[in-house]
Specification:
Blueprint lengths: L7 E3 L9 E9 L5 E4 L14 E7 L9 E3 L2 E3 L4 E5 L11 E6 L3 E7 L6 E3 L1 H6 L10 E7 L2 E15 L2 E10 L9 E3 L1 H4 L2 E6 L4 E6 L12 H27 L4 H31 L9
Parallel strand pairs: 9-14, 10-13
Antiparallel strand pairs: 1-15, 2-3, 2-4, 5-6, 7-16, 8-9, 8-12, 10-14, 11-12, 12-13, 15-16
Helix pairs in contact: 3-4
Length: 291
């Protein structure tokens, strides 16, 4: 494009031009060491009842430094992460990035700002052990431009791009339109970062946003409510189908098949709901958001 020798696109709508007020949490461990962090989720559960919470004004820009330790005090600093990406896939102009799941499984995924969440292929899900047990395979339908297709809903414990990290991401398991990538990284992962793209250098940059008290676990109220409603709605639907399948006037063989499917699916939905509830409880999510 004319007049555009080096282009940097910002795909986050959040601009940090004003001072940011955050909470600072302080606690003392069993060895008498004082710790500080600006994220409550990083305080071990056994120390949360003694944590000292303070308001902290942070006007500094994100810096590329590890956690500092001064006089026995640990302070978590915001991250700046740069990752090289593959700029092309055939004739398509796509951003394909290396992703690490659960700190062990690596795969190339497409960065998709139009996708609300994480999507992975069945092959990748198998490597993560998400399809091992029938009672963890919750069947859903997922839609796109080409229509709806069967998929499976699960949860990935952690997703990491370079040192940029997000935990507890709902994942839709479905086939991808290309063999060049094994899924899509969507806005769920990018919610805690300002993301920029340097096209000339093929670099993707993640600048961590300051934690906020109204975003427990890195997610706002609308995210928590939407995930609880989605998981809870699927569990309720399978509970109703289980009752209906038991009263249907069909052969005993067909009834047994339908009952087996309904029980497996209800259990899979219930397991997801229980896992979500535990994660919400660990991050002190208000009970009014869990509906």
């Amino acid at each position: 494009m004319m007049g555009m020798r080096k282009t940097v696109f910002f795909i986050s709508l959040i601009l940090l031009s004003q001072p940011v007020f955050a909470d600072l949490y302080k606690w003392v461990d069993e060895e008498g060491t004082v710790h500080m962090t600006d994220t409550l989720a990083q305080v071990p559960a056994q120390y949360r009842d003694q944590v000292d919470r303070r308001k902290l004004q942070n006007t500094a820009e994100p810096v590329a430094q590890p956690a500092a330790r001064t006089n026995g005090i640990n302070i978590v600093r915001l991250k700046h992460v740069e990752v090289s990406y593959r700029a092309f896939e055939g004739r398509s102009r796509r951003i394909i990035i290396p992703v690490t799941f659960n700190d062990s499984v690596k795969a190339d995924l497409l960065l998709d700002t139009g996708s609300p969440g994480l999507m992975i292929t069945p092959s990748l899900a198998n490597r993560l052990g998400l399809l091992d047990d029938p009672e963890t395979r919750l069947k859903i339908m997922t839609g796109g431009i080409g229509g709806s297709t069967p998929a499976i809903l699960s949860i990935v414990d952690s997703v990491r791009v370079g040192d940029a990290r997000s935990e507890f991401l709902p994942a839709t398991i479905a086939t991808m339109p290309s063999d060049e990538f094994e899924g899509l990284v969507g806005m769920d992962f990018m919610a805690n970062y300002k993301v920029s793209i340097d096209i000339e250098k093929s670099l993707l940059a993640f600048d961590e946003l300051p934690p906020q008290s109204d975003r427990p676990g890195g997610h706002d109220e609308s995210w928590w409510r939407a995930v609880f409603q989605r998981f809870g709605g699927l569990r309720d639907d399978w509970a109703k189908y289980l009752e209906m399948a038991d009263s249907e006037n069909v052969s005993s063989t067909e009834k047994e098949r339908r009952m087996k499917t309904a029980k497996e699916q209800f259990t899979a939905a219930d397991n997801l709901c229980r896992k979500l509830e535990r994660y919400a409880r660990d991050n002190l999510v208000p009970t009014t958001w869990r509906r």
